[in-house]
Write a structure and sequence with these properties.
Blueprint: E1 2-7, H1 14-30, E2 35-37, H2 62-74, E3 77-79, E4 83-87, E5 90-98, E6 104-109, E7 115-117, E8 123-125, E9 138-141, E10 144-148, H3 157-165, E11 170-175, H4 179-197, E12 200-205, E13 207-210, E14 214-217, E15 221-223, E16 229-232, E17 238-243, H5 246-255, H6 264-267
Parallel strand pairs: 1-2, 2-3, 10-11, 11-12
Antiparallel strand pairs: 1-17, 3-5, 4-5, 5-6, 7-8, 9-10, 12-15, 13-14, 15-16
Amino acid sequence: MKIGLAQMNTGNDKAANIASAEKLIDNLASSGAQLVVLPEYFNFIGPEEFWRENSEELAASPSLERMRKKAVEHSVYLHCGSIMEKKGNNVHNTSVVFDPNGDIVATYRKIHLFDVEVPGGRRYLESDIITPGHGLAVFRVGEIIFGLATCYDLRFPELFRALSARGVHVILLPAAFTMMTGKDHWQLLLRARAVENLCYVAAADQYGSCPPNHMSYGRSMVVDPWGVVVAQAGDGIMAITADVDMLRLAEIRKSFPCLDHIRRDMFE
C-alpha cells in the first residue's frame, strides 16, 4: 500500500485550511496514495479562547463532511488528522478515518494531553480545554492493520506497545510537534517507536508558524520497521508518499523476532 502524508500550515481561517487540505489530498491521490493522512488540528489552530467555538460534533461536522467527500471522490482511505470534537460538555482532540465509501472505520480521541513548558518558556496546557480519550483504535485494510496515535502520544511507548499487542503493522500519527522539541526529538522518537514494535510509523506534522505564537517542526516522515526513514518532507506545505512493504516487515519480524520474546508474564 502507498501512504500519502499531507504537511500543512494550519491557521485560524477554517475555509482556507480545508481548501489547503483538499488540494493536498488531490495531489496525493493523483500520486497513487491509497491512504492519506492529514496533520493534527488540520482544520483550525488558533488562540485557546476560540477552541470551543471551533469544535464540531462528529455527526454534524462541516469539516469532516468535506473530507468524507474527498475520500469518496478519490476512492481512498482518509485519516483526517484531528479536529476539536464537541461531545456534550467536553471537547476532544479526535481523529476520524474514512474508507473509500465515505464510512467511518476508526475514531480515536487523543489520550495524552500536552501540558508542558518547552525550552524558551512557551507553556502549553491542552487540558485546559481538551478532555482525554480512554480507548485505543485500530482498523484493517486488507492484510494491513493500522493503529492510531496523536502527537504527544509519541512520548508514551506503553500506547504503542498496546497497539502492537493488537497486531498492528502501521501506526499513523498526526501531529503539531513544536519546533523546540521537534528538532531534537521528533525523528528520534518516531524511529524508536518503529524499532521497538517492528512496525511502520507514518507521521504527518504541521509546519511553521501558527496563531497565536505556535511554531511547528514539520519533517513529516515514514519510518520502516528497521528504523529507516523511507520518506521525509522538507520545509513548507507539501505532500510525500511511501510504500508499506509487508514482505519487508514479515522478513524483519522473522529474522529479528523480539516481539515474541516479550516477558508478558512480567508486565501484565
